[in-house]
Design brief:
InterPro entries: Csc1-like, RBD_domain_sf. One of its GO terms (cellular component) is plasma membrane. This is CSC1/OSCA1-like cytosolic domain-containing protein. The structure is a single chain. The chain has a four-stranded antiparallel beta sheet, with helices on one face. Strands 1-12 form a two-stranded antiparallel sheet. A two-stranded antiparallel sheet has the order 2-3. The chain is built from 32 helices and twelve strands. By secondary structure, the protein is mainly alpha-helical. Among the domains are: 378 residues, no CATH class; 196 residues, RRM (RNA recognition motif) domain (Alpha-Beta Plaits); 56 residues, no CATH class. The chain is elongated and about 105 Å long. It starts with 35 loop residues before the first helix and ends with a strand.
Length: 910
Amino acid sequence: MASPANLIISKTQPKRSNSFDSQIEVLDEHPKTTNTKFNKLATSIASVSTIGNISQRCNISNNIQITDLENNPKYDMQNNNIITTSGVLDSKEDSNSDSDSESSSFQQGSLKKQKTLEDMTTLGDKNKAETYRNKHMIRKIIDGNYEKYSIINTSTAELGEYGAGLELYFNFVKQLGYLFTIISLISVWPIYENNSGNGLRHGAAKQWWSYWTVANQKSLSLDSLKLAEEDLSFINQNRIMLSIADFICGLCFIIFLIRYSIHSRKIVTENFKNNVTAADYAVEVKGIPKNFSDTGLLKEHFEQYGEVCEVYLARKYNGLLNEYKKRAELSVKLGYERAVALKKGFKNEGKIKKLEIKIQKFDKTIHQKFKKGHITHNQLPVNRGFLIYNRLDDKKTCLKECKAIKRCCRSSVVPIEQYFLGKHILKVKQTTEPSNILWENLEISRWNRLLRKSVSIFLALVVLIASIVIIYIMKAYNSSLPSDVYCIQELKINPNQSFSTAKKIYTSNNESFCYCKFQSWSDIMSDTDINSYCNYFVLKIITNLMIKFCSSCGVIFVNFLLRTIFKRLSKFERVSNKTKEQLNIMVKVFIAQFINTALIILIVNANFDKVSAIYYIPYTKMIFTGEFSDFTREWYVNVGESLVFTMIVCIFSPHLLTLMIICPFNYCKRRCFYKLYKTQKSLNRSYAGPEFDLACRNSQVLNLIFTCYLYSSTIPFLNIIATVALFVLYWTDKILVLRHYRKPPLLSYHLNNAAIKFIPIIIIIHSCFAIHMYGSESVFPTEVKENSNDQVQVKENSIFDRLFSIPGILNISIIISAGFTALMLFFYTDVLSICKKHKNQVETETQECQGTYREELETIKKHGLHTYKILENPDYHDLVISLDNGAIKVLSLRTSNETRPPLTRSRTFS
């Protein structure tokens, strides 16, 4: 009798099919004779996607043992070999295998390697989790051992091994730190000049940093015209000197913009030369027929340009991947319960049965919801292909030749050998890293994505307006404290009145508040009588400070909510790769945070009664009803203090909170509470740490420098805050990336390019604000005169007076320089390149320093994915396997009513 260890082929499937339920295991050579009874049984088993455990040890007795795991898991788990609906699993060999290593074992061809998620799920092992952590964290391998990078000595170039985006982020923060260090040193002199003034009376400011603003510049003496003119000369001289210092800071910013733009391009070039990735050798191919499945033909077609190492066909999922997330979770739970059953003596059969029923219901639902829900992954329609060439110059030849074909298409002259399958013209382009691709989004059409983007922008505007209203309400409530103007002009309070007299004549709460407001805090705290009289004042001041603190924290909390919402909206847009998704998040989050942090506080306190044109805009009468129509001294005391306090909080939040609280907490969880994680997969996930959010970090940096630099012309202390914040952010993120966060995906340079393009905007906006601030007549009067009552009056400065003053001319020159620089950098980029020959030389040097794909394969594996096969991607591995498992189950449900030989738990054929 012939041995049963032969080739088992389902008669219902095509001979060349690579589908999941028709794949086979070659256990021996083809026998000359075949047992007819055995072939019928094998065909029946294949039709319901249940393959028996065929052991080569049974060659002598020619027996086959068929095990039905679904009906009696208790029996099957106690056997040496577990037979599942997806293949053969040797429990003795694989029960302790790490879930991370399973991704490479699920390949097309061998049925024995195709296991369900239930089979792959193992109990948590701390040692394996430590290995997984080392593999998925930023580590260097020395003599086969994982070693941590030094926090102090690790350069940004070394971080560039894990993506140009990561290296550019740290370079961006570092270079901004150097820039603001220089600007802070320049700002020391304006801070000294402001602090030396006497514009704010003693006790007028609630915080010491208010004396470092221009609000404390020398005030104008209004006793006589002669004294006022003498003061005016000194004030104008100070204004010019301060504007010159601010002009130098603007020039430093423009120099930084030019220098860093060139420097970042060099970083990208060096990163491309020094760090090898799979994308360096890969191309993306569109136009492949959707029913095409022969990768050999595609490989043969493109090998006319050079040797092709890998061909992968991406599929159209039609929403299947997202649907199968739930099934994957249920399968992992089922696998855990089955693994526990081996230890508990099968006392959890009830839980196993419930999970099996849930999975079966899901399979029925998915089959009804999708017309092709029973199709396995390799049977789905083809969307596009990814090819990896062995040599860089072969890839370059392919791109060049296919680009020439595209030009030929316009004149309908294409060589016949360039057609694929004799009729298809394929579109080839450069592709991104495998870990950067969002596979479920590749099928989205351009118009669908445009519609989604429009909806996302609309919803983002709605959310932004809602956040503006919330912050507006928080900032607008100021506990109704009387202003200095109200106290002196309306209530006729005399600050120099003796306490005994004031106690008798100022009896109302507002009057006592105003009188105490002009007294020093030392007198209020030291004198018991004054303290008792000013009790209402102290209570209102403390309440107001608490409101400011809560509103500042409220801004940070609202920004956190916006970040979460905008992440969801960016996912809704369904862009093709993570870099584009991160770019969308960065732009939306930055704009929202900047408006909420820097502009809302200005709008809340603004009063545009003097600007008649503003009232043509609807609802402006309800919005711009604040106290200040210009940047007065009181504006810096009330609004400026709150702004500075918010930026001080931004020094610590949220990165320092992560370092001081979340990072130690996660370490404690790994050491003390690792037993709470049931499966190896969940334990691995907890050990690997969270993902570094590069988009939100970039938006945080932009918000920091925009807000601080916007008002820094008259509040120079903000430059020092920005310097400290950038220093803290750089080292905190470096510690977290090297010790806390998992290895990030290989993101490209697009986030950095977008951040650079925002720099000219802040230079221009800063200069516009500086023109208005240095033209404020309440702080920097330019002309005085006597009225009919012999009183000295200050002339109001018009917009033209502000523009054509010395500070105005200096800032206009900065605006023109920043605009011209932006045009040169972003619209005429070839100007910065020495010549075209230099570019070609860089490409040639890159090809010479990099080896072939096969030679660099081990290096590529250390820093990211080395292949475009979706099963090698840990983010999609479980989903694809769950999709295939579900397809097999649905196929078995469809054939369950057909007549077939009965299967028992254990049956022997000879």
